[in-house]
Design a protein that fits this description.
The protein has one domain: Phosphatase 2c, domain 1 (4-Layer Sandwich), CATH 3.60.40. The chain contains 7 helices and 11 strands. The radius of gyration is 17 Å and the shape is globular. The strands form 2 sheets. Strands 2, 3, 4, 5, 6 and 9 form a 6-stranded antiparallel sheet that branches. The protein is an alpha+beta fold. The N and C termini lie close together (10 Å). Strand 7 and strand 8 form a beta hairpin.
Length: 248
């Protein structure tokens, strides 16, 4: 049994007219399950895509999750749930001409006794945060991430790159939308932060680390991160889920 303490927040930001992000968190058969999605493809399309993906992912996990699953089994289960979410988004897109280009990113976490299993498609991220530091677990499926990998630009240049929002993989546009899966061991007192690029583009990794570990406690942590984002214009929707591995 590995139940975590969870906080979640989503905000339209200061520029966008509607919120195309969506998230969910639940306790299922002794596991904590969280998912964050960032929709795209125009107002109605992006909002619908992210909500369909979140609902379908959670529904599939609830249907297939069992208490004693191993991390490898959880990774397989999560990948199947992502595939189901992709199918649902594609079906909705095919049924509506004005929403045919809709899609969404997805990042999820399912807890087990010694940590979490993380799955992602697109550029929404998962960070493992401890008193020792902050580690990004996921790899963005994006144009600038590929450029960083090739050594064309630095990670710092990627943060400001004009094409930083161009993603190379997403639910909806891709037939397969292959997800990456990670097993992330965690100790009691460790945190996991799931977030959309609206937070990443305005708040640095070090600021995330500071607010989570040294700020005024986890209950108000996401509000403080949102305040930093808004102080810098918050040009995109901002969504974050913070998970704390409880001491047994």
């Amino acid at each position: 049994m590995s139940l975590m303490q969870v906080w979640g927040l989503t905000d339209t930001g200061l520029v966008r007219k509607e919120n195309q992000d969506a998230y969910a968190a639940d306790q299922v058969d002794g596991h904590t399950v969280c998912v964050v999605c960032d929709g795209m493809g125009g107002a109605a399309g992006g909002q619908e895509a992210s909500h369909i993906a979140v609902a379908t992912f959670m529904e599939e996990v609830r249907r297939t999750l069992r208490p004693e699953m191993t991390p490898e089994q959880l990774r397989e289960l999560s990948a199947c749930a992502v595939a189901q979410a992709n199918r649902a988004v594609r079906e909705a897109a095919a049924a509506s001409e004005e929403r045919r280009n809709m899609g969404t990113t997805l990042v999820s976490a399912v807890s087990y006794d010694g940590g979490v299993v993380i799955t992602n498609v697109g550029d929404s991220r998962a960070y493992h945060i401890t008193a020792e530091g902050i580690t990004r677990v996921t790899k963005d499926h994006s144009l600038v991430e590929s450029m960083v990998d090739r050594g064309d630009i630095t990670a710092e240049e990627a943060r400001r790159h004009p094409n930083r929002n161009l993603i190379t993989r997403a639910l909806g546009p891709d037939v397969s939308a292959d997800s990456d899966g990670y097993i992330c061991p965690m100790a009691p007192g460790d945190y996991l932060l799931l977030c959309t690029d609206g937070l990443v583009d305005t708040v640095t990794d070090q600021e995330m680390l500071f607010e989570v570990i040294h700020g005024e406690g986890p209950d108000s942590c996401l509000d403080r991160l949102l305040a930093i984002s808004k102080s810098r214009g918050a040009s995109d929707n901002v969504t974050a889920v913070l998970m704390l591995m409880r001491k047994q």
